[in-house]
Amino acid sequence: MKLPISIFFVLIVLTVFAQNNKVDSLTVLLNSTKDEYEAAKINLELAKLYERIDIKKGKRYALSASQYTKNDSLNAETANQLGRLFFFTAQLDSANFYFEKAKQILTGLNDERRVAILNIGIGAIQLRLGNYNKTIKILTKSAAYFEETGDKLNTAKCYTNISTALAELENYEPAIEYNEKALQLFREQSLIQFQLITLPNLAAQNYKNGDTLKAINYNLEAEKLALKMGNKRSLSIIYNNLGSIYLDSNPQKAKDYLEKTIALKNELNLKSGIEVAQGNLGYLSLINNDFEVALYYYKQVEEQVNGKQLVFACNQIQKCYAGLNQYDLALQYSEKARILNDSLLSAENQKVFNEIQTKYETEKKEKEILELQTSNLEVNHKRIQNQIFLFISLGFLLAAFSLIYFILKNAKRKQILVQQELKIKNQELAQRLKTQELNGIDAIIDAQEKERTRIANDLHDNLGSRIATLKLYINQIANQNTENNYEEKNQLLSQLKNLADETYKEVRKIAHNKNTGTLINKGLIPSMNFIANQISDTEKLKVEVENINVNQRIKNNIEIQVFRIIQELLTNIIKHAGATEGTIQFSEDNNILNVMVEDNGKGFDLNKTDYGFGLNNIEKRIENINGNFVIDSTPGNGTTAILTIPL
Predict the structure, then answer these.
(1) Cβ–Cβ contacts within 10 Å for residue 304, how many?
(2) 3-state secondary structure of 594
(3) pTM score of the predicted model
C-alpha cells in the first residue's frame, strides 16, 4: 500500500526535524560537558548523524572524537566511522587506512564479528582499486565466519563482492556459483533491493560464460522485480543487457530494449552505460545501411569514450561517411583513427620491450644467485676441512699415542664423505645451470615470438589503416570532375603521394624497429631534472624536482622502473590534467625510497574513471620492484601519486 504524497512529505519533514533536534541537543551537551570521554562519545554520535547530511562536518566531529585515545572500543568505532566517511567521498586510501586501524584495535580486543564486518569494507575498497585477488582473500575469510555464526545477510554481501572479483579475473563459473548462493540468501530474507543488484550481475556473468538462455531469464526476473519496485535505474541496466544479448539474434527486439535504455538513462540523467546502448543502436543502423542514423549514434559515442573504444568509434564513423559518399569527412576520421591507433601501438610496443627487459634482468639475477651458491659451497668445504684439521690437532694433544692412528683414519673417512657430498652438489649445480640455460633459450624464443606478434600487429593496424586511407584518396580522386578541378585534383594527388611515402617509411620502420630503452647514466634524480627542464621550457607546464635527503646511488633496475613510472605520470599530467605546475619530490626513510608526484590540475573522480593502459603499466612496474603505488585525486583538487620502494 502506497502512502499519499502529502503524508509521505510530512513524514520526511518530521524525520528531518527530529534529526535536527537531536543534532542541536547533542551540540548543546557537547559545549557543556567537561569530561573528555563523554565529549568523545558525543563527537562520534554527531559524526554519524552528519554522515548523510554534511560529510565535511561529519569528518570534523569524527576527528575530534579520535583525539581521545584511552578507550580501545571507542577508538575502533571512531576509526571505522572515519573510514566510512572517506569511503563515501571516494578517498579510498584514507578510508583503507582508518578501516585497517579499526581492525587492528578490534583484533586486539578479540572482537571477531566486528573485524569480519570491517573486512567487508576493506574488501570493497580493494575491489574498487582493482586488487581482485586481495579482495577474494579478505572476503573469503569473513564469509567463513558469517557462515559459522549464521549471519546470512553479511554472508551474502561477501559472496557478491567475491563473485565480482572472480568475474573481473574472468573466472566466470566460480563467480556465478557465489552469486547464485548470494541470491538464494537474499530471497530467503525477502531483500528485493539486493536481488535487483545480484540478478543483472548473474545475467552478465552467464552471458560472458556462453549461457545466453540463463542470461535472458535472469534479466527478465530482474525486470519483474524492478517494475514492481518502480526502480527505473535498475530497469535501465536490465534493458541495456537484454539489448546487447539480442543484438544479432533478434535485431528488432534489441532495438526496442536499447531505445528504452536510452530513454530511462536520459530521464534519470545517468551517463554510465549509455554509450554501450548508443553504439549498439549505431551498429544495427549500419548493418541496415541506414548511415545517417548510425552516424547520429556513433557521434554521441565518440564524445564519451577514449582509447581503443575511440579508435573503433572513429572507424565506424568513417564507414558511415563513406556510405554517404562524403569522402572528405570519411578521410578525416580514417586519419584520426590511424593517429590514435599509432599512439596505442606505441604504448603496446613499449610494454613488449619492458617485458623482454624484465625477463632478461630476472635471468641475470638468477644466474648471479647460482654463482653465489657455488662460491658458498666452496667456502663451506674449506670450513669443514679446517674443522677436521682442528680435530686432528686436538686429538694429538688430548689422546694417547695409541689412538693417533684411529683419529687420522676417522678424519680421512670424513674428508672422503665431504668430497663425495661436494661432488654430488657440483653435479646438482651443473644440472641447474643447464636447466637455467634452457630457460634462457626459452625466454629468447618467447621474446622472438612476441616480436613477431608485434610486427604482425604493426602490419595489420598501421599498414591496414594507411592502405584504407589510400583507397579513400583514390575514391575521392575518381569522383572529381577532371575538367574543372585541376588544382584540387593536383592537391589530392600530392596528398596521395605523401601518404604513399609515409606508408613506405612505415614498412622500413617495421622492418628495422628497435627499442633500446633509456639509459640513466647520471642517476635517477639528475635524469628527472633533465626531463623536468625540457617540459618547463615549453612554458605550458612548470615542473620542479625536489631532493630532500636521497644521497645514495640507487640500484640500476630500480632506477629504470621508477624513471619509467614517473615518465608515465608526467605524460598523464600533460595529456589529461590541464595543470600549470607539477612537483616531483624524492626522500629516503629507513632504506625506503619515497617519491611523490603532484599537480595542480583538474583532478578526477577515482570511482568514475577506469584505469587505462598507463596506470595498469605502473601497477605492474611497481609490483616488479616490490613497491607500493597510491594515487589520490578529487575533481578540482589536482592529483597526488605516491611511490614507496624498498632499497
Answers:
(1) 16
(2) strand
(3) 0.47
